[in-house]
Specification:
The complex is a heterodimer of chains A (189) and B (250).
Chain A (H helix, E strand, L loop, with lengths): L2 H9 L3 H23 L2 H17 L10 H22 L1 H8 L9 H5 L4 H10 L3 H12 L4 H8 L3 H22 L1 H10 L1
Chain B lengths: L7 H13 L10 H4 L12 H19 L1 H4 L2 E7 L2 E6 L26 E2 L1 H8 L14 E6 L3 E9 L2 E12 L6 E5 L4 E5 L2 E6 L3 E7 L2 E7 L2 E7 L2 E7 L3 H8 L4
Parallel strand pairs in B: 2-7
Antiparallel strand pairs in B: 1-2, 3-4, 4-5, 5-6, 6-13, 7-10, 8-9, 9-12, 10-11, 12-13
The chains are: A mainly alpha (189), B alpha+beta (250).
Chain lengths: 189, 250
């Protein structure tokens, strides 16, 4: 059954169709939220709210389009709003963060020691939020250029030019703060 | 690195390859919180509750629905499964004592899923932790809102419609519980753990697919967390009494 069929069925109240849609995409949505927020609990909340909103607006979704970019668009918006709120109340939040067992408030500190991927993530998190989003969508979640364009509501050509600039800024960031990252790659070759 | 600076295509390939190795945390199961049939399991308020609380609740909900007010709703803190939203501006710095309409069962007594303490213990085992100060509860409710929510009620001695103490125990999987609050949360500690005291009538919301389960809380609330399990203690007693009860939870 195609994704469009599942969406049509879910609109008519078919719970099984809706569950299939959620199960097919929950991992990707959670991962995007985690990359953007760096906190598993917040990412789970955003993933839940993404599907709740998606369901509410399912009737308005154009089934000639792909569903995953649309979900990513909702998730990125929710994560963006949460990040703004978190920034405003950062001092307040920090007082409660340390005792939450699944909370990774400082993922950089935890993660960077373990792998190049985490070090790269550290570097990406220092970029502008728009650069982060496009890199996550294209390279971490492996959307095509067209899908990335749909998720960001821009033209494919804009995705290419933004990616080019974002990658350049990331390379500068890595060169400045994580020089070992590329050096290790050269040593491996 | 400048001597060995990668070319654009090398760099893009490196980013793509490296990203594939990213160690994501395990994906939680979102489905229970967003499952379509769950809407039929949402708490349903009775006609009596609607009548008693309609004026207060509709005013609060209407205020929250006004665009400029909604825009001022900001998440301020999170304790375990509970997130507390400050609704700006605070209604008043003076917080009136919570009141309950005489003769009307409090909303919490109309929760679905009433059960016995024995059955709750059979289902949740060691997660059922009673405050030694209060002993066994008079009423017990068990709901599943993404995870188990156990509600224990101790009634006032002279009124079976009025809870004197309500202890809610929220499992770590409970989905998106939110307290919409207009006052200033007060930071407290419960046996050395951070907690928050909300001193005002406010609203608690559990988010589910296509709807929200809302309950007006006509009491003060103390929220704290022990090992991933969140505790909400509702009472009209003062903070000192609430802390004494909270600290008697083993």
């Amino acid at each position: 059954m195609s994704e469009a069929d599942l969406i049509h069925r879910a609109r008519r109240g078919d719970g099984a169709a809706w569950e299939t849609l959620v199960q097919s995409h929950q991992e990707a949505v959670f991962r995007l939220a985690y990359l953007l927020l760096g906190d598993a609990g917040d990412a789970e909340d955003v993933a839940q709210e993404t599907f709740i909103r998606a369901f509410r607006f399912l009737a308005q979704f154009d089934t000639s389009r792909r569903w995953r970019p649309w979900l990513f668009s909702i998730a990125a918006n929710l994560a963006r709003n949460r990040r703004r709120a978190a920034g405003r109340y950062f001092a307040h939040l920090r007082r409660f963060a340390y005792h939450s067992p699944d909370n990774i408030t400082d993922p950089e500190r935890e993660a960077a020691r373990h792998s190049n991927a985490q070090a790269l993530w550290q570097a990406i998190r220092q970029l502008d939020p728009a650069d982060q989003e496009i890199i996550y969508l294209r390279y971490f979640l492996e959307l095509s250029v067209d899908e990335t364009a749909e998720a960001l509501h821009v033209a494919a050509g804009t995705v290419k030019s933004r990616l080019h600039r974002a990658l350049k800024r990331l390379r500068d960031q890595v060169e400045r703060d994580f020089p070992a990252l590329w050096a290790e790659r050269l040593a491996d070759e | 690195m400048s001597d060995n600076r990668p070319a654009d295509d090398q760099w893009e390939a490196f980013v793509r390859d490296t990203a594939r190795d990213f160690p994501y945390p395990p994906t939680p199961d979102i489905l229970p919180a967003v499952r379509q049939p769950a809407q039929s399991q949402l708490p349903r308020r009775t006609a009596r509750w609607r009548l008693a609380a309609a004026v207060v609740l509709s005013a609060l909900v209407a205020a929250l629905a006004v665009p400029e007010v909604r825009a001022a709703v900001l998440e301020v803190l999170r304790i375990g499964a509970v997130r507390i939203f400050l609704v700006e501006p605070p209604v008043s710095t003076a917080t009136p004592a919570p009141t309950v309409t005489p003769g009307t069962p409090a909303p919490v007594l109309n929760l679905p899923g009433e059960t016995s303490l024995e059955l709750a213990r059979a289902r949740l085992k060691e997660r059922v932790r009673l405050p030694a100060e209060l002993g066994d509860p008079d009423r017990v409710f068990l709901q599943y809102l993404g995870g188990p929510v156990l509600t224990l009620v101790w009634l006032a001695a002279d009124d079976p419609n009025t809870p004197e103490w309500v202890l809610q125990i929220l499992d770590r999987d409970v989905s998106a519980s939110k307290e919409m609050y207009r006052g200033q949360p007060r930071d407290v500690t419960v046996n050395g753990r951070p907690g928050v005291w909300l001193e005002d009538v406010h609203e608690i919301v559990f988010y589910r697919i296509t709807g929200e389960s809302r309950r007006l809380v006509e009491a003060h609330v103390l929220v704290w967390e022990i090992n991933g399990i969140t505790y909400r203690l509702e009472t009209t007693h003062a903070l000192a009494d609430a802390l004494r009860v909270a600290e008697s939870v083993p």
